Amino acid sequence: MTDLVIMKDRQAVTSSLNVAENFEKRHDHVLRDIDGVEKDVPNFGEMFFETNEPDSYGRDRRVIYMNRDGFTILAMGFTGKKALQFKLKYIEAFNQMEKHIKENQMQLPSDPMEILKLTFAAQENTNKKVKEVENRVSNLEENTILSAGDYGYISRRINQRVAEVARGFGNITQEQRGKLHRDINSGVKAVTGVLTRTQLRQKHFKTVLEYINDWEPSTATKMQVRQMTLDLETA
Fold first, then answer.
1. Between these two residues, 221 and 57, which has the higher pLDDT value?
2. What percent of the chain is predicted at pLDDT more than 90?
3. Closest CA to 186 of 177, 199, 195
4. What is the pLDDT of residue 121?
5. pTM, whole model, 2 decimals?
6. Structure confidence by residue, pLDDT tens digits, 100-139
7. Which of 15, 95, 157, 195 has the smallest number of Cβ neighbours within 10 A?
8. CA 44, CA 38: separation in Å to the nearest integer?
9. Do 166 and 136 form a contact (C-beta atoms < 8 A)?
10. Residues 16, 67: contact at Cβ < 8 Å?
11. Can you spell out the DSSP letters for the chain?
């Protein structure tokens, strides 16, 4: 991924090309979106400015640069989880670049190489902070309690698996079936470390499904179920 934000004319900006690349959009569509907000933004010229830059074939192409406010207006229309992650990265990149500019505005370098070094330093710091944010978001998502739909699906799979195993014992009573349910539920709690099924988290979902698919009752449970069948036959 190229640098999200650069310094141009002593302010933090990004370009329509950069936005198109990182949000995986066509560049002409990004330009179209920018043109679409021009009539509704009174100070459009303070946020966006147009230039021409050569493409890979050396042909001039239209490119629009935008500051933080311009990017914010443009990105309002980008939706989805992936778009949100890129918005967070851009916001952090603007913050870091503007911080560096503010701290060094009395002694900003004029040499292009020094400016480039400053840009790289800001970007490196940005990437570290974005990674921290992504880790916190990932941890939050994994520890989210199971949705009603996922919880219901696990319950149905447990019932289905118990029914599959129960057929191997012939006709069994509800009491025998209850022993099978207690066995599989005990295993679910053991592999996830929870005390009750209601404490299952999103991070447990895949593990629980794999356990259910592979579950077989313990030897003790099998013997108890068979003994109950013998007791019924001899009663």
1. 221
2. 28
3. 195
4. 65
5. 0.42
6. 777 665 455 556 666 566 666 666 666 666 666 566 655 5
7. 195
8. 6
9. no
10. no
11. ---S-EEETTEEEEEHHHHHHHTT--HHHHHHHHHHHHTT-TTHHHHEEEEEEE-TTS-EEEEEEE-HHHHHHHHTT--SHHHHHHHHHHHHHHHHHHHHHHHTTTS---SHHHHHHHHHHHHHHHHHHHHHHHHHHHHHHHTSBPPHHHHHHHHHHHHHHHHHHHGGG-S--HHHHHHHHHHHHHHHHHHHT-SSGGG-BGGGHHHHHHHHHH----HHHHHHHHHHHHHHHH-
Residue 105 in tokens: 């505005």
Radius of gyration of the chain (CA): 30
Residue pointed to by tokens 């999200």: 4
- Nearest to 3, CA basis, from 79, 96, 99, 80: 96
Count CB neighbours of 64 within 10 A: 22
Residues 135-170: tens digit of each pLDDT: 665 555 556 777 778 888 888 999 999 999 999 888
Tokens of 107: 């002694």
Domain boundaries, the chain: 6-142, 148-234
